[in-house]
Amino acid sequence: MDVIEGLWRAAKDERLGHALLFGGPDGVGKFASALYLAAGLFCETGPGEPCGQCGACHRFQSGGVESNHPDLLVVDPLDTGAEVIKINRIVFREDSSSKDDVELRRTVEGFLDLHAIESEWRVVIIRECHRMNVNAQNALLKTLEEPAAGTLLILETAQIGGLLDTIMSRVTRVEFTPLSKGDATELIYELSQESDFEVGEKMAENLSRWAKGSPGIAMGLLREGRTGERDLLLSLLAGRRGAVDCSRAVWDLDGKFGGGTDRAQARMRTRNVVDYMLEFMGDLARCCAGADPREQIHAELLHALGGDDSPALLLALGPRVDVARRRLLECRTDIEANITPDAILDRAFLALAILVKRAPARNS
Fold first, then answer.
1. Is there a contact between 22 and 155 (Cβ–Cβ < 8 Å)?
2. Which residues of 7-26 are buried (b: 16+ CB within 10 A; e: fewer)?
3. What is the CATH number for 84?
4. Where a domain ends, among 160, 175, 190?
5. Domain span at residue 52?
6. N- to C-terminal Cα distance for the chain?
7. How many structural domains is the chain composed of?
8. Confidence (pTM)
9. pLDDT per residue over 165-190, tens digit each?
10. Distance CA 203, CA 146 (A)
11. Domain termination residue (choose one: 175, 206, 239)
12. Which residues contact 235 (CB under 8 A, 6 or more apart)?
């Protein structure tokens, strides 16, 4: 909040740069802060904290992430499920005689060529800007080099290394850092109460640990059904359910994904589960090397596997850990190939099951 207030003061004093790069870890509020900065610029009482009452604030708040404010353009690949931001989101590529006004306004260049309608500002926010391919980044350079008055571009990313040096040299970096454990837990709890995924304080604390203090990642875990996946892994590792039974149960879990087709969403679900298993395998490998299971991110899974004698049992798992991890890495590679997601998920749960003291029998 202090950072955003400083940027509003710079805007009042006409010192705000035309291009900002919001960098820092995933899920610490960079994108939300970019939206909040824009809201404060558009507010009729601003630049400053948005009043929430004026017409500009009402228009900004309606319409979801895209907002209905006419002077804001949000390029959000997460909202559309796009893995890459292509050049056609930056500049219009068709012959000038065939330019459609709606399509033109959806490009960064076309949007900024227009005059501001309600505000003194025209604001573009590009979420996860590292997803821009090289052509898109090069196309953006013209806007960065020749900004119109009242233009503000906010680039947001957790992967600064994915940006060209020419982009980096033309932006002002604004760094975001992770929240403390207590602050992250409190914010996750508050955000969940305002969403469709309400959780208790203990689960909020667990989510903060799983997400390494990132509220944004924690809310993503809730949306994608990670708590249900956790319960299935607990059942498998504790010997209460079989591998194939758990694999089948995954498809009954609630979860929202950005993929446009059922097949794409199934791949995303499978990718999430396998990545979760690999995270757990990282914790397990550290424990096999002598680390304390209680200090690991997925401590509850380690306890389910090892019981009250976790340290001694986990130390004895060394060879099986290597086999399970290798099989899971093969599953992760196969997700990107044309292999049925449910078959990959079966293999992943069977790989994890070799760690269990008495591997549970498969349900018929």
1. yes
2. bbeebeeeebbbbbbbbbbb
3. 3.40.50.300
4. 175
5. 2-175
6. 55
7. 2
8. 0.64
9. 999 999 999 998 877 788 888 888 88
10. 49
11. 175
12. 241, 246
